[in-house]
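@here heads up, posting the sequence + SMILES for the adenosine-5'-triphosphate run so it's all in one place. Ping me if the SMILES looks off, I pulled it from an old spreadsheet.
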Amino acid sequence: MIKLRRFLKGYKKEVIIGPLCKLFEAILELFVPLVMANIIDVGINELHDTEYVLRMGGVLVLLAATGLTSALFCQYFASKASQGAGTEIRRALFRHINSLSHAELDSLGTPSLITRITNDTNQVQQNIAMCIRLLTRAPFIIIGSLIMAMSINLRMSLIFFGAALLIALTLYIVMSRSVPLYAAVQKKLDKIGLISRENLSGNRVIRAFSKQNTEKARVDAATEDLTRTSVRVSKLSALLSPITYLVTDCAIIAIVWFGAVNVNAGGMKTGDIVALVSYMTQILLAMVVVANLVILMTKAGASAKRINEVFETKPSVAEINHDYISAKENTPKIEFRNVRFNYSSDGDDELSGISFTVKNGQTVGIIGGTGSGKSTLISLIPRFYDTSDGAVLVDGNDVRDYPFEQLRKKFGIVPQQSVLFSGTIRDNMKWQNPDASDEEINRALQIAQAAEFVDKLPNGLDSRVEQGGKNFSGGQRQRLCIARAIVSQPEILILDDSFSALDFATDAALRKALAENAKGTTVLIVTQRCSTIKNADLILVLSDGRLAGQGRHEELFERCEVYRDICLSQLSETEVAK
Ligand SMILES: Nc1ncnc2c1ncn2[C@@H]1O[C@H](COP(=O)(O)OP(=O)(O)OP(=O)(O)O)[C@@H](O)[C@H]1O
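bot reply: prediction finished. Complex structure tokens:
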């Protein structure tokens, strides 16, 4: 929690004044038993004076009203500081997560990140509010009640110390056992988040494979696991109340018993007993508050640790240079120099010994079996990952020397999975260039062969896109994603298996339109289809993370066995030669 205190910087006033208001309320509360004792001893027993009793009653009402006003102020400051800090933590987390590279996002995991932004931040936020309201008040009430009890009768106050010690011991034993379980509960919540996410997003696949029962069993197992741990924690916490009440009740009996003996002996007044019982009750309530506060702080501590884990995760792909650099003349558009890459340093290389150059405006086809490293290779060009060895150059400069914005602006990327965002088609088309005109958008839609179905929609560019684009077919989504990438006329267009959901005629029409309309653009097409890249200026053939061959179709068909096998598995000899 301490590490997150920076988010309270803007709320110093609230953090100081809030607890002070609560302290003021606590001081007033400590006077209540004294006034009550006075009513009994002076107003009733000594003076038999109704007016005195009413006056003192008025003092009680005044104390209560002032205390309530003070508590309301504290509540206001606590809410302001906690909501404000929570909002800033969420914003900072979101900013930081966006600065992380794909490697860190992969290892932290989306469901866990969502739980950290939502549930964990809420926990911390709630803890801030409760600490402002109760962290100073509860100990103050406990210590204040003990002092007040001592001031009434020093010997009787020993009962208070004994009871307070016993309750503190109970708290310690219960907490030391339940605290580790809270961290486990958070982890199990993460797991449920992961399963729920998979189930909701993969809902259609689950139904198609009739896997509802298996998935239900998986959800049941995860929720039962969470329930078991939560019940264990609750059982431990539930012990707190009966034990503390038992100790307090015993202490109250002792106070009444010894108090009565003292009153009979003339050493104490009846009102003192009432005041002592009242202080004992205040101690009990404050102890229960401390117990709840410790539970809350434990949970918040576990949540804060998970939030800090995200903040402490440094992006492995960091921006080294923030100044724009200019393109070097007479250099290839893209160059790979003996590139080696692996996702984790202790695993096998996903790519090794990759060297090739691509000239400006060329169309490059990247082909190979599944898992051969095609997507990995292209993800190194916009620097989604850094190479483990060797260098990737764009316009003659190492990609690591570019500011992120300058580098990424060069690209139009169509990822393997077509991702659209909720909004209108126009909103989605303006992702890279918010100033894109309708004319530019329509041109991109035409090249991507998407204009035919967009024009038929009643609202055209203003048609709604549901979350993930699920109101469009797979092929339509792909074409919209391609259009989005070409609206801003990027220098380099990367199409990662982006024609997979298109029929052969649309695939061919799209490539023809691209060749005619995007002449200066360097196009990289990752595909499994030989026909898609047959006419490319350069074809890279990948096999097990290595370059099995590079060149044009005819020469590769002659020389490269892997390429020939791929082509012949898809096309006849005549089609290959066409
Ligand atoms: N984020 C990741 N973390 C760890 N390993 C990964 C990751 N992405 C891919 N890999 C591994 O890297 C290898 C190459 O994967 P890649 O996605 O580049 O292949 P591909 O040729 O594009 O396959 P496909 O044609 O099936 O999309 C595979 O063995 C895969 O398991």
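MO: The chain has a mean pLDDT of 88.
MO: One more: The pocket of adenosine-5'-triphosphate is lined by residues 106, 343, 350, 368, 370-376, 416, 497 (CB under 6 Å).
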